[in-house]
Design goal:
With 291 residues, the chain is α/β, with parallel strands linked by helices. The chain has a single domain, classed as 3-Layer(aba) Sandwich (Rossmann fold), CATH 3.40.50.880. Helices cover 28% and strands 20% of the residues. The strands form three sheets. Strands 2-1-3-4-13-12-11-6-9 form a nine-stranded mixed beta sheet, sandwiched between helices. Strand 11 (227-233) and strand 12 (238-243) form a beta hairpin. The longest helix is centred in the C-terminal third of the chain and has 20 residues, at 270-289. The chain is globular and about 50 Å long. The relative contact order is 0.15.
Length: 291
């Protein structure tokens, strides 16, 4: 029998506790890719991602959908906002035809008036909070299409004045994150559309459901007045939100699950990516026509 020293057992316990409190970031994510530098190619479409991950899941997902879209003739160019100097970020946002708020660490609870709840949070990155609030300021001011995934949905709600549940199990919500240390913290659970809406030819019809990949220990508490809920989990947790003012911001949509890592071919996975690409084309058309 192999005997483990008390120090080794203690270190394992600390690692396990840290894993339990990690936010909604991708478990296979690394430190993130560097920003693309230099002038944007004339034949490209720029998307600003709040933060890159080494898995490149978001980029692979959207590139795959763009390649299958006969109406999108230009390649996608991805730029990371996190770590970018302000002047460069403003330049890239001026080029951007969409913003994607990716998964990641917990938001500082002080941003929604519950600063004492830091003890119920995992990793917190206040610089990322600042950057993503800056991105949402731009999205709302310009109407740039924006998709928020996991943490991205939560940032949208907090930016709009809503609150979060700092640790779902404390409030009786379970089954939104599983797995085991060293493998994966993903879990599968059903999500259903509770409010009809559409973007172009992509329709999200009430009652449509899917098994999706989920990886989060926080969720929406009070929904911000700017948004309406359009998807829920079986335990009633809000899983999808969208801006009610679709005239000013036609596509400001957040989902609590990970469409980029869920099964392909479903409206709640690939349909979301197609809807974002469609919103980008609509926005480009409005700019070209001067509206």
């Amino acid at each position: 029998m192999i005997r483990l020293s008390p120090c080794f057992r203690s270190s394992c316990a600390v690692l396990l506790a840290s894993w339990v409190l990690i936010g909604c970031g991708q478990p296979d994510a690394g430190s993130g890719s560097s920003n693309q530098k230099g002038a944007a190619p004339a034949d490209s479409v720029t998307l600003v991602l709040s933060k890159f991950y080494s898995s490149q899941n978001y980029r692979h997902w959207l590139n795959r959908l763009a390649d299958a879209d006969p109406h999108l003739q230009r390649p996608l160019r991805f730029v990371q906002a996190y770590g970018m100097e302000e002047t460069a970020l403003m330049t890239e946002l001026g080029r951007a035809q969409a913003v994607v708020l990716t998964g990641g660490e917990d938001i500082h609870p002080g941003r929604y008036g519950q600063a004492a709840d830091t003890v119920r949070c995992g990793r917190i990155d206040e610089e990322r909070d600042r950057v993503e609030h800056r991105l949402l300021d731009h999205v709302i001011a310009t109407g740039t299409p924006c998709l928020g995934v996991c943490r991205g949905l939560q940032v949208m709600n907090v930016h709009g004045g809503g609150t979060l549940r700092p640790h779902l199990p404390d409030d009786g919500f379970t089954g939104h994150r599983g797995g085991r240390p060293g493998a994966t913290s993903d879990t599968l659970h059903p999500v259903s559309v509770s409010l009809d809406w559409h973007m172009g030819d992509v329709h999200f019809d009430r009652g449509v459901s899917a098994q999706v990949v989920s990886h989060h220990h926080q969720g929406i508490g009070r929904l911000a007045s700017r948004f309406e809920a359009w998807a829920h989990a079986e335990d009633s947790l809000i899983e999808g939100i969208r801006c009610t003012d679709t005239t000013a911001v036609p596509f400001l949509v957040g989902v609590q699950w990970h469409p980029e890592r869920s099964d392909t071919g479903q409206v709640l996975t690939d349909g979301l990516g197609r809807a974002l690409l469609g919103a980008m084309k609509d926005a480009e058309h409005r700019l070209d026509s001067g509206h």
